[in-house]
Amino acid sequence: MLRGPEARRQMFGFWSRYQHFALPAAGVVIAIVTVVVLQQFLSELSFDRVMVSASEIPAKHLMIALALTVVSFAAVAFYDVVAVETIAPGRIPKFVSASVGAAGYAISNALGFSLLTGGMLRYRIYAGEGIALSDIGRIIGTSWLAIWFAFTVMIALGLVLDPARTPFIDQIDPRLGLALGIVLILSIGFLVGWLSRGERTLTIGRFSIRLPNSRGALTQIVAGMVDVCAAAGTLYVLMPDTVTTSPAVFALVFVVATIIGIASHAPGGLGAFEASMIAGLGLGTNPDAIAALLAFRVIYTLLPFLIAIIGIVAFEIYVRHAHVSQRVLSAGRILEPLIPPLAAGATFLGGIMLLLSGSIPRAAERLDLLSDLLPLPFIEVSHLAASFVGIAMLILARGLARRLQQAWAASLILFILGAVFSIGKGLDWEDAIVLLGLSAILIAFRATFYRRPIEGAGPLSWGWLASVVSIVAISIWLGFFSYRDVDYSNQLFWQFAIDGDAPRFLRASIVILIATAAAALHTAVNRNAIDRKQRVEIPPAVSAIVASSNVTYAALAMLGDKQFLMSPDDRGFIMYARSGGSFIALGGPIGPIEGDTDLAWAFHDLADRSAVRTAFYGVQPGQLPMYLDMGLVALKLGEIARVDLMGFTLDGPRRQPLRYADRRAEKDGLIFEVIKANQVAPLLADLRQVSDAWLDMKAGSEKGFSLGYFENDYLSKFDMAVIRQQGRIIAFANLWGSADKSELTVDLMRHAPDAPKIVMDALLTRLLLHGKAQGYRWFNLGAAPLSGLSANRLASRWNRFGSFLYRRGQNLYRFDGLKAFKDKFDPVWTPHYFICPPGLDTVRSLFDVTALISGKPLELIRK
Prior knowledge:
The chain is α+β, with helices and mostly antiparallel strands.
């Protein structure tokens, strides 16, 4: 049995592998439990009675609830203000961080997906202000800590002020609750005192957060308490007088219900929050209390979200049709990142509205009127179609969050169809107006949704799928709750009548479940699909550009495994390949202007419009500023060895190993020869025997993208250096030479297993002398992976990891041995880089380029 660090490492590895699935699965479990709880506690209530109670809530209570909602969102703004001033003091205006904090909370509170909505908003704004990704993560983390501090304080106060009536605790011993509350309060006090003694950092695994000082912590705690108290107060004032729970216990149950709602993966904790409140306070038999929960959802969740949408639409219209000041444009920059998540949220909520609307009875007078205008089959089809549109909107909302053009077009069509079907299924003009309003919003922001991914909208994430499943479960439960008085039978499903709401609900439920199952199956089957290398037709202009290019790696364009982005005049290109979620360019722009800025930006735009990541593999130092301007990051892959041929000779003590290899080759009868490209074809069969034997000896397979591979048409295009022994070819290397003779290098370099040990030294030595005789300035020996990376504790994590692997990774790959081999030629070492997006996309890009080259973890750092 494993113990200690090894056991912890295995547990961490297991969690890292399955957490993307485990957390959504837990959310689905919570959704199932939610349905069970609601069914158990609300078994004696009627839907009509709840709706009557909702209409009877006093207007005074509604106004107080609205005021408390404003107070809560104002308090939330302080989370980000304190977090930004702690992590990046003075770099973000306070009104910006306050706006981002409140807006992010409003969105994530309505939609869930906090990292996709609130987190994405923070990243877009703070990164635009020059805040590093790591600091943005710390800002988000600090804000989350503030929320959980507030939760902890409120739970502690509830336990201390009224332990005797605290749910579950009152069944054991109130003194236990009192003791727990005191411990929590003392812990918070100790924490504040600890923060007052100097700068503090919280480290969780590899992630560290600089904590605020005691003043900032107190500010966040107070803001959190105001936030939670105001939010709980919003619901409390809506509750009827028959709910006699003390405010302290009510707040405690509210906090616990909020936590369960967050874990449920349902948007805004829909269903899970309500079930927790009902179970915690015993509200199942009180229709007025259930009505209060519905009103709370409208006031605290839906209303702020709708206000945000309306405000952004109005602001965008104003900006586009008026000359505005720089301050106003700055505010527009703040609001612009909200458009995709808001559109996605509006679509998601529209889908929820259609699903819930299809699960409750229609107004009898409207159906009577509708029956005079439309035939029954149209009404039945409209009900089914509206439910299908609802589930489709839940699924397509993710595409809107990713700015996909297809999702925009499909959502617009669904909104219009949904409005038509809402009228056709029961004259639900309220739903139709909302859907038409959402379609107007999509039309207003048409330019925001411009991406056209190659694979279409793609599969859902597990988290999004969990949210869809949760909503479907709640909507189906609502239908059974609404029609609990209907006698179910086998014939009920096939009954068609104007007043047959229950049969219509059953048929719609089948459509919804089938669509959900199809989405789940699509996600499970295609989630981890790997793109395979495919032969690509090489544009006619590429051959001429390669022949005239001054960079040797341009020859890899002739492999046929890459796509091409041509310049407008067809005089330059970027060669790239798709792998996973990335477009990966090899090197950079190739043509008359090496590193053509316009072409590089065009490739970045192509990747963005295709909804994939931009990456450049094997970039030289001189091109870094252009890529950094794109908001990308540079990871040092190692160093490239280049030999100055102008001063290269075999004289001197440092050249003794090369002289020995050259003389030994001559003594053993090894003959060096360079064969012109037009004479290579007859030798390909012999060369393939050497290549296959070399691959078998290395227990390897052909690579691609950044390396050539044995392919007859490809090798026939280049000169070939060979070494023969007794007439048999025992080693070869195909040569790349730049048009201006600035550089000569080799691609495939392979030898027979029975060749003398000095064959590679001899081949390279002769190639260096050959290059010098031909007038080449440099000879490129290729890369030494991970060499030259800094191990300083202040260096980036990539540098420190790479340096550690270089020093300790001999069992995986002889990093130091390869560098020592090339050092014999006294080269000049030049760094080269992998350019990719920051943050989590860095890791994804590294995996994508690894799979593209060979699928082996370390292959990304080779030549």
